[in-house]
Amino acid sequence: LAQEIAQDIAPSAPARSLAAARERFLPLPFATHRAPRVSTGHREARLLPLLTIEDTPPVQRWIHYFSGKDHERFQRFLSRGSSYRQVVEDVLEQNDLPPELYYLAMIESGYVTHASSRAKAVGVWQFIRATGRRYGLESDSYVDERRDPIRATEAAAKYLRDLYNVFQSWPLALAAYNAGERRILTAVMKANTRDFWELARKGFLPPETANYVPKFMAAVTIGRNLARYDFVDVQGEPYPSLEAIEVPSPVRLRDVAILAGVSDENLKKVNPHLKQGMTPPTEARYEIWVPEEHA
Fold first, then answer.
1. Does residue 3 register a pLDDT over 70?
2. What is the DSSP string of 208-268?
3. Catalytic-role residue among 44, 100, 108, 145
């Protein structure tokens, strides 16, 4: 397919790969690289320590809230998230991360790809622009890769792994994902403790962050015990199997759809990050997602 597109609509500009473009954004102090999208066989396990889900009063309060007053909305989160679960857990596994982190995106966005916050965080994993770019997610008037659930999950996995390596504590790493690593480092230094619960109890964390980790743990607890909390295991339509194809850029998705034999609507659906229905004119070549059976 890529060859057909190149022959039909290739621009005359010299090609340069998406990976090369991303090398411009070298994150400091953290390192980043692209995650493999397909497992390539046996590799040595480098699993980080398990993520312990604690049963504290703050966690219980959020369980009570999600399963009571917020039951209807949280059920929608569970149902919507089920479509992305396999994709997200595959990326987490490829990065040797705990599968429970699937629920972090649920707390962040309810698995809405176009979600945005007052702080201008965008996408399933709610990246702000600076952090997204630090982890290879482009965003401009043509593209916002924070909206791509696959690219954004790969970036979130790298960021979460880096945060754990810094803090050596999952509660602190999750708090840093919410508030930023510098704010959590400052809190740890001021309070002279690395105990998240003590930091929260003594007021060293912003209220949103003090609630963030309990909310996440409450979501995991409910997800493990749906019937106990009166939730239904509704399975959404599975996210389609996709292939990444590098195409000449700029090119409109409708032109790719014609050559690939896929509907324009379906191609846009699996490329939600292409805001104008076309690849960015700032790139000579660009990777787009195409359903596997049409690649």
1. no
2. HHHHHHHHHHHHHHHHH-TGGGT------PPPPPEEEEEEESS-BHHHHHHHHT--HHHHH
3. 108
What integer best gives the mean pLDDT of the chain? 86
CA distances from 62 to 74, 84, 100, 231 (A): 11, 24, 17, 15
Does this model's pTM top 0.85?
Answer: no
Q: How big is the CA angle at 33 (ends 49 and 285), to the nearest 5 degrees?
A: 150
Contacts of 137 (CB under 8 A, 6+ apart): 127, 145, 146, 148, 151, 152, 155
Mean pLDDT, residues 68-85: 97
Q: Are 246 and 287 in contact (CB under 8 A)?
A: yes
The answer to whether residue 108 is catalytic is yes
